[in-house]
Specification:
This protein is an alpha/beta fold. The protein is built from 14 helices and twelve strands. Helix 4 links the parallel strand 1 and strand 2. Helix 4 crosses helix 10 and helix 7 packs parallel to helix 8. The structure holds nicotinamide-adenine-dinucleotide.
């Protein structure tokens, strides 16, 4: 009799636990549909040590990472913190704005008090740091903004993360541009150990930020991970960057403005592949690691222009739709990186170039007014945030 009562008592506790767990993790019901004990245990184990709370930033790539994480992991809380600069748009987060596990906070990363307050108040345990001044053209004219956000802002985040203590991962998003240019088309793909030789002020501030991140990892054991990615394209990108800019120029019946002779190449990665790379890095990378995020679509700017003209059915006017304008002060020939380490963690590029470009063009047809008046971004050499009279090109 005594044993029986004990059994029922235990049964009740377990039943209560299951009801409570299901209440806080409704997604598990889907897993139970194909009930395999190991899978349920895995899901339970995963969420028991997570209930992760992320601090992300809402620009182009950050918005896709936030959407992926908030939708796929309803038991993770996603807090997006962003100052909503000229290139940013809250509508990029429409897909998740009503989700219970999502929150947006408007703020500058250069503000130590606000950053610390949000980290503590929201009980943040993971930082994915996408916030930056990112347009190389602008950095030739007024790079103080770049130092302020990319170096000082990163320093503020690191210091807040150090004081806050509960940080399990600090993922710092850097760029392949920190390696400097691949000088020829024979240059071997650069691995993570390669020396950093940035050639423009934007890349230099990104490299500077990386050194701060490394120092916080070494000095304070902050669990930092650094990523260095190729050029990214896809929906939500402000039209100052090559692909959305050319697309929007063509959609307005204007010729594209190619820098120099258009022969410089970039390796283009589709943004959803990049968001998946961050998902893999979040779950599988180890503190102290540096990971390249690279793909297989190395394409010249001229080829990109021709492909877009053909996707928009304007092939018969190709000659008149391509204009060549003076080059930047300095324009890296190409970037070439080796992503072997990331492949070992299980990530690979999935989107085919043609398909990704087509999806992107279709998105800009539907959302051409997403960023309001973009005239300043569509000129050959945008000067948003650039001091009057400052030069960004070789000719002026
Ligand atoms: N887009 C690419 O091709 C590419 C390639 C490699 C690496 N990266 C890196 O990825 C990260 C994200 O790039 P992106 O293309 O999404 O950039 P983006 O320019 O679209 O977005 C940057 C975001 O940072 C925010 N921001 C800027 N300064 C801020 C500040 N002081 N405080 C708070 N928010 C601030 C802006 O409002 C914007 O939302 C950057 O660190 C960039 O260096 C980008």
């Amino acid at each position: 009799m005594y044993t029986r009562i004990q059994f029922y008592h235990f049964g009740g506790v377990w039943f209560g636990c299951i009801i409570l767990y299901t209440f806080y993790n409704p997604h598990i019901i889907y897993h139970w549909a194909g009930l395999s004990t190991t899978y349920v245990f895995y899901t339970y184990r995963k969420s028991s040590h997570t209930l992760y709370c992320y601090l992300l930033f809402s620009g182009f790539i950050g918005s896709h990472a936030a959407i992926l994480l908030a939708k796929k992991y309803p038991h993770y809380k996603v807090v997006v913190y962003d100052k909503l600069d000229y290139c940013s748009c809250l509508a990029n987060l429409n897909e998740i704005s009503r989700l219970k596990n999502f929150k947006f906070v408007k703020g500058d990363i250069s503000s130590p008090d606000l950053v610390s307050y949000v980290m503590t108040e929201e009980k943040i345990d993971t930082v994915m740091h996408f916030a930056a001044q990112t347009h190389v053209d602008n950095s030739f004219g007024n790079s103080f903004n770049f130092t302020q956000s990319n170096i000082f802002g990163t320093h503020v985040l690191l210091e807040a993360a150090k004081i806050h203590k509960g940080i399990k991962r600090f993922i710092h998003v850097s760029t392949d541009e920190v390696y400097g240019e691949g000088e020829t088309f024979e240059t071997e793909a650069m691995k993570e150990e390669h020396i950093l030789e940035p050639t423009n002020p934007y890349a230099a501030t990104k490299a500077g930020a990386e050194f701060l991140v490394k120092s916080y990892h070494r000095s304070f054991k902050l669990p930092c991970i650094i990523t260095r990615g190729n050029n990214v394209y896809g929906p939500h990108q402000f039209p100052e960057k090559l692909i959305p800019k050319f697309t929007n120029q063509l959609l307005r019946g204007r010729p594209v403005t190619l820098h120099g002779d258009g022969s410089n190449t970039r390796n283009f990665l589709y943004v959803e592949d990049v968001a998946r790379a961050f998902e893999v890095i979040l779950h599988k990378a180890q503190p102290g690691q540096i990971l390249n995020i690279g793909g297989d679509n190395e394409i010249s700017n001229l080829e990109v222009a021709k492909k877009l003209i053909s996707l928009l059915d304007l092939g018969d006017k190709e000659d008149e739709l391509i204009t060549f304008v003076p080059d930047r002060k300095f324009n890296d020939l190409r970037y070439t990186i080796n992503s072997g380490k990331l492949h070992q963690l299980g990530w690979k590029e999935e989107m085919a170039w043609e398909e990704g470009l087509k999806t992107t063009v279709e998105w800009y047809k539907d959302y051409t007014s997403r960023f309001g008046n973009i005239e300043d971004a569509l000129v050959a050499h945008p000067r948003i945030g650039v001091a009057p009279g400052a030069s960004v090109t070789n000719s002026d």
